[in-house]
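Pipeline run #58 for the internal structure catalog. This entry was flagged by the ingest filter as a single-chain record with no existing model, so it goes straight to prediction. Upstream metadata was stripped on purpose; only the residue string is passed forward. Reviewer on rotation: M.T. Logging verbosity set to normal.
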Amino acid sequence: MRRALRSLLHRFRRAREGSASVLLAIGLPSLLALAGGAVDYTAATQSQSRLQGVADAAALSIAREMTLSPMTPQRVQLLAASHVQAALGGEASEVQVVGTLAENNTAILVVITAPLRTPLGLLPKLTGETTLQSKSLARVNTSSSPTKLCVLSLGEYHNGGIFMHNGSMLNAPECMLYSNSTHKSAVIVQQGSQLTANMVCARGGVSNMAGQVRATLVNDCPIQRNPLDTKPEPPLQGACLQNKLTIKDGIRTLSPGVYCKGVTIEGTARVTLNPGIYIFRDGPLTVRQNAEFAGQGVTLMFTGKKSYFRFLDNSLIRISAPSGGASAGMLLWEARSFQPGLNSWKNGGCGGGDDDDDDAGANNCGPPVPGVVPPKKTNEHHINSDRARELTGTIYLRNGLLLIDSRRPVADQSPFTVMVVNKLDLYDGPNLMLNSNFAGASVPVPQGLGPLGSKQVRLGM
């Protein structure tokens, strides 16, 4: 009997899942019952199954992270140990964890070895086995065309890091969309909305509320670090070239520099920007009505209070980022010194549309009303223009919300547009088109964005 038990337990330990080990040892409980070991066997099976689940989760998580950035053997081991520690808590001190790269660096292997402890202690004596071991292999399937990160929502705790309201469209067929939110509704696609992408990856979950989704959906993704977090900013100080500038008509050319207390371009004005860095301090950049706003090789930076961009009405927007220099690739850039208003979405406000209400606080919002569409948060970065067709480069809003509610396609004439924003809100049926023809423009994609390589992860041995 001892030899039979040892043979069956050996098969049990090598089984990939706890459920499989039960099937491999159908006759084992009756044999063990003769020696009073049925209780021990049940406990060992449960322990084996639990270890296998932990190993599977760790391998999958590390493999997903490997699709986003290069992985070294040292980091694989560190991440494997960290995942097992988080899953087992104090029990992790008794287990041995080995995490390695496998299959020519296209897979992650996690092996967990733990002491075999049973209620009666009979099983180790009968079989001579003193440990349990679980192995999990997570393979990364490479793609012939690398996945391109086109949208990264940075906010980790709010719902709807990417929020598509009723009837909105987001067309990004070659792109990955990523939400760092841990909320179960990290990405929301409401009824009538259409989402097309290569892949949607969310730390929390994707809530599809009767929308049309053409994308691979992945939940429980690892956090995607902000690739622009340490990017040096150009100097933001300096004398104001203009204060409260308003241009209503005629043809005008602006030069790089600091613009304070707001810039408004409206009516039939046609404004061209010379190449360089434009800093908007303590006031919004507003382009509205039938005005035209164009510039090649420009970076628009926003710093201080009430410093938003607003492209509204029938204004024509054609801007592209620099191809070189300190701000290469950066188109619309929210500085670290940007200050959200007290009535901003981040501070619990609902907005109001008036430039003067940014600091009104959240008290004027009132509780949500069932069946009533919430007000637009128009005291944020806002694209409402029906002619915002060219936005070539990276839009980086580390703290702000980008609200888009145009009725015609946005950014469709750009070779590429990349968005790294705290929150993206597509409202009232806009059509955001994110091209990813990185080779079609002299504008570079900042390091850490763009192609990410592999895209799919699965378990297998």
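catalog note: Residues 16-26 have pLDDT under 50 and may be disordered.
catalog note: The first helix runs from residue 2 to 14.
status: ready for reviewer M.T.
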